[in-house]
Design a protein that fits this description.
By secondary structure, the protein is of the alpha+beta class. Strand 1 and strand 2 form a beta hairpin. It has two domains: about 100 residues, Alpha-Beta Plaits (2-Layer Sandwich), CATH 3.30.70; about 55 residues, Membrane-bound Lytic Murein Transglycosylase D, Chain A, CATH 3.10.350.10. Helix 3 packs across helix 4.
């Protein structure tokens, strides 16, 4: 028996081991596949980022549209509140009412304390108004009236009895709250009424 020398790179041709060229070819194919995978991952990341940007732009556009629609509705509500107060012939000079998220802000100059209070109550007793903020000046200041929040079961007679000491004085309470009240028998829980000074 003897020792025989062989060319190692020749073995791959019959399935034993890999030749240097095959190893290089395999490494190049793996590197190309890895590069393709990374390129695909980068492309997918870019697509997701672009989709997220588009979605954000759409949300921002929707939010802007909603904000414009809300501002328009609040502007209309402000105009309706002003028209309502003007229709009641309450003497308020330079009346300006701004409505925003349930808060009505009133500015102007009232001829009397009574006109100021009527204006505040007229606006405050409107559906959707939760708060009235006012900076109404009064040309002829006088004592402020007391206010009463109508409870279930209240009547003008009972309110007059409580505040004025005589239920028969209910017409005074009614008059103090006209034209917001049109009928002394129609008051509703949650309404705020002026109680005239005695």
């Amino acid at each position: 028996m003897g020792v025989f020398d062989f060319v190692k790179e020749a073995g791959a041709k019959i399935g034993i081991g890999e030749s240097k060229a095959e190893k290089e070819e395999k490494a190049a194919a793996e590197a190309a596949a890895e590069a393709a995978r990374k390129e695909k991952a980068v492309a997918a990341t870019k697509e997701r980022a672009e989709a997220a940007r588009k979605a954000m732009r759409a949300r921002n556009a929707d939010a802007k549209r909603e904000a414009r629609a809300e501002a328009l509705e609040e502007s209309k509500r402000s105009a309706r509140l002003e028209a309502y107060v003007n229709k009641l012939d309450i003497e308020i000079k330079d009346l300006d009412i701004r409505f925003d998220d349930g808060v009505a802000t009133i500015t102007g100059e009232a001829a009397t304390q009574e006109a100021k209070e009527r204006c505040i109550l007229a606006v405050g007793n409107c559906h959707g108004v939760g708060t009235v903020e006012e900076t109404i000046t009064v040309a002829s200041p006088s004592a402020e009236s007391r206010l009463h929040v109508v409870q279930s079961g209240d009547t003008l007679w009972a309110i007059a009895q409580e505040y004025l000491g005589n239920g028969n004085r209910y017409p005074e309470v009614f008059e103090a709250n006209t034209p917001m009240l049109s009928d002394p028998d129609l008051i509703f829980p949650g309404q705020v009424l002026r109680i005239p000074a005695t």
